[in-house]
Batch of 3 targets.
Target 1
Amino acid sequence: MTLAVRYTAARTLDTAPAPGVEPGPGEVEPAPAYVGICGTDLHIFHGDMDARVATPAVLGHEMSGRVLRVGPDVEDWAPGDAVTVMPLRWDDTCPACHAGHQHICQNLDFIGIDSPGAMQQRWTVPASTLIRLPEALPLDRAALVEPTAVAVHDVGRAQVTDGETTVVVGGPLTAGRRRGPARSGGAARPGGRRGHRRRYEPVGDARPFPAGDRRRRGHARRAPHPLDQSALDDVLPAAREAGKSVVAAGVFNSGLLSRPWPADGMKYDYQDAPPEPVARARAIAEVCEEHGTSLPAAAIAFPTTHPSTVNVNVTLGMRDRAQVTQNVALQRSAVPRTLWHDLRERGLIRQDVPTTVGGVP
């Protein structure tokens, strides 16, 4: 028997015995020594993700520890090894995985959210998720490897070079994670030295909502997209009042709007898409085809059609060169303004959606 910290309801945690799971084939049991608290964990604690997280839930996906036991066929790990965990487990069978997009696997298990996490004394995980830690790295610092890896990946993908001004958007912790790798991972200079001449402009708290406002915790902060225009009611007016820009991320909403024709089994709000959003997405896709465009192109264009003074920028996740090429082509494709009119006429977007700019006549 082992003890675990469990999320049981909004703003409620308890400590309770949890049955130990003996590692089976392909599995390893580490003993977590340190566990980080991610922003996602805070969203869960506030009750913002109850539709996804089954209670009682053991959270924690940022961790460090040492191996206790290994499964019968595991050869690369031994008791005492210092490890952290890459908290993603995909099935390698769905269309997204076959296309090389494992990060949006239609059956993705985000360990610590969708399955038990590291806030327990013993934790059995697939051996394939383990990352070996240098023995010289203190375990309290090693617990931050996972979020630091995200920042390192961001900076590497951005291909920042000497002399460029880099704007880091986010709260203090998020910004700090990205500033550090950007400073230390500078472009190579003659002689093999690393450059550190970038200039970093702190932009402060990018959120337009005051402390205590429920929208600041993730409520009603979805990117505006054809299936959800709730941002018109709160996010965009608040941003306009505060003089803030809006970054529309997740315009494909977990994947449902990422293809010209939505398929069964795709994700919506990080869960299996219910029938109603799938039916609406397909109806919108049909109208897009009638106007010579596609559902993904419309999803990208939609947030930018708002005629207010709010500057709305669209951010797209891209895994490789092919996705970059595809998304750039979608962003540049012509989306007729008449599309939005027809979607309103058919009741597929709200009648009060303002789309007086954007697209082509």
Target 2
Amino acid sequence: MTMRRRAGKGGRAAWRSPLVRRHEECQTGAPSRRLIVDMEDGLHQSVFPGMTFALVLLGLAGAAAVSPISGAISKTEADHYIWGGINDGWHLVQRPDLSVIEERLAPGAAEVRHYHRAARQFFYVLDGALTMEMDGRVYRLTKGQGVEIAPGVPHQARNEEDAAVAILVVSAPKSHGDRVDAPLAASSDAVPD
């Protein structure tokens, strides 16, 4: 991770991490191009390096409303909910500009096909396999794979496997309250991709 040097009190140098610089720059205006590169450097060392671009993109989407960095969170401390009667969700980040949810879909489970007016989403498979239908195309995502879904694109996440699937769903801004049902027309069955 790249560290920057800045003059501190009495002309002494102070070290600042990319996240601290991001917070400082967001308080005064839009992040610089150099900052984005620094953030990517730091995220390449993260637990989920495949999500680098999506996290940088989604993080910058709400850059003007960045709040101070809070402590670490896991499923144990996160707000838990059940959907579809059999699936679990944990709100890891709940802000108007960003939502990060870990979900566990039971075998055979599927969400209602829908789209979001404003939210851009990134679905990332932590364990198992997820079938994602997007605008009539079907994708099978396995551990370590993800897909970005732009606002207005109808989609449906489902588990067509015999085992549960664990995923991360990142939305910017938050997707709750932004959902419009979009049933798949019977005459245009989804095409595998």
Target 3
Amino acid sequence: MREPASGTRPDPPLGAAKKGTSEASCALGRTLLMAAILLCTASRTEAQGVGREIPTMAYYAAFNELYDGEYDDALRHFQGEWRGAIKKPQTRWLDSICYHTMIGECFYQMGHLDKALEQYTAAIQLFLQYNDWMIRVQFPQTIRPLNPQACPWGVSQRGAKLCDFPTSMPIT
């Protein structure tokens, strides 16, 4: 972690609330952060025939900088990923949700709450525009069950079965 420059305040820990920040805006930011992480990690996707996985590995690598408190570097990398995101004629595509959210998180951690709110708002607007994205995922017709060894903490009473899911799936 970098030492703060003379006369500046040290960076707050990740997720720490700033003085004067309302609880509602903190909750909104955390909710968006979790939604972006779930969206991006639950299933990397092959976007609309583009044939590439999104988000890219560079997106995931930027989290190391974010967690190390290198917010300027993380911001630069998330913005670079956003510039390479899929664009449609009138708007951006679904993949920009995670980029907007993480750019907003960088701004939030750096104390630029107005810029963070702009990014979180952009993420919410895209999420509302693509609220049916899960039904567009082309899931495989069959999912291969795993034959796991017994869990050391006991047998589940729920009857759930572990399966082998693909790491990426196309979206129409």
